[in-house]
Batch of 2 targets.
Target 1
Amino acid sequence: MTPASDDLRFGVAGVPPSCRENSSLQAIDFLASLGLDALELEFVHGFKMSQEMAGQIKIKASQSRIKLSAHAPYFINLNSEDQGQRMRSQELLLNSLRLAAAAGASDLVFHAGYYGRKSPEEAYRQIKDSLKDILSINRLERIPARLRIETMGKRQQFGSLDEVLSLCRELDDLYPCLDFAHLYAREGKINSYRDFCQVLKKVGKKLGQTALKNAHIHISGVMFNQWGEIRHINIEESGFHDEEWLQAIIEAGVKGTIIDESPSLEADALRLKNLCFNLKEKGTRAELSRTRHDFLDTE
Ligand SMILES: [Zn+2]
């Protein structure tokens, strides 16, 4: 088993397929037994978790040292044409934050919405206004969970890297969830060591190094066409360059949580965790031999 890394935690979104029971409590035990470090609780199809269950999950996760985050419902649309729908989305997002915090999740990830008939600029303004309200209530209630807006993979969805970073820069207490499968699928471009480094550099430049030292990242293989993401697939079955990606993550000094969303969940998460460990080992060895060379050179 690969030892836990202080820098990067690896985990999955939702209950893994090979877990004995379809329950978050079981999933926490199961992930800990595999040597994984994180679980993203899925509120994506609504709230099926009682307050009492949330309390139990919080205790279990802290005993098992599993870092928790949560994902808000998919049907949130802060840019809906319909005002009622926008208000309902705000309420859903706030309730997700409250439930996430009750379950001990430190972060809540959400999809902001769709452009619909609005221009990207109009959508940006609308979503920013909606988020301002949510963030001010969040501050008032002092909910101990961070709100994280996700980079999205379909071109009709709000959430390009630039949109996400600009919003996080403009609004206090809003943080990004960097989904690299989505970043790749959106334009079919970001899939090399150089591309990944550029993304991470941009994050650091726009939001400061703290954004890289406290990152929340989603990853999976992805199928896409000219309109962006079609669906998630396992990393090995996709053309995603995971080794180059991890190398960039390591070299940029990223710390935080990496959540795998491939269909195989725990298998891919373990694969990435092992790969990360091996790359770090290799890096340390290379550094050691470099130091030795330098030393020999000066003799
Ligand atoms: Zn998501």
Note: The longest helix spans residues 266-297.
Target 2
Amino acid sequence: MTTLLQHADYGHLLPAAHGLLEEHTDQTTAHLIATGAAMEALAKKFGGDTQTWKVAGMLHDLDWDSLDKDYEAHCGGKLEELLQTIEAPAELLGDIRAHYQSKYGVEYPLDTELRKCLYCVDELTGFIIAVTLVRPSKKIADVEVRSVKKKLKDKGFAAQVDREQIGSCKELLDMELEELIEIALDAMKSVADDINL
Ligand SMILES: [Fe+2]
């Protein structure tokens, strides 16, 4: 298993990333802020540049709210156009495209820890939001690792979430599912106000 560290940092784009979310996202904003926080936490574990990993998490679905659920167009020209407005390096575009493995897997393989983490945690942050919203309080502070784990086993709950992608943390990152959930959940709790949970 190759585990190369991220080779080009772009953490200086963090303020610009916030600006892009404000201007171009709506429905997806909470998922992106959550994923940014989770990626920042994962960077600490894997020794990556925390701000770079956060930017990748924050911008990975930047184009989605502009695409009217067009999966074919996701991570394509629109994304490129938006990233150009902040003079983002090619590395960021590659890191984002790598999270869409079914389309860009050949061109942008999961060959860095940043990419592997983004791939595994993307579906998980969305799932944790779904778990939170069925709690009576709708507060993430009331969500525990074991309740997330239990819901993951319930295939009828948030059925669109790809459990296999989340579970690939074991193979890709040598990380137990429980630990990935714990890191993502704690990170999301730390930004609870920003994601309205
Ligand atoms: Fe996503």
Note: Residues 31, 60-61, 122 surround fe (ii) ion (CB under 6 Å).
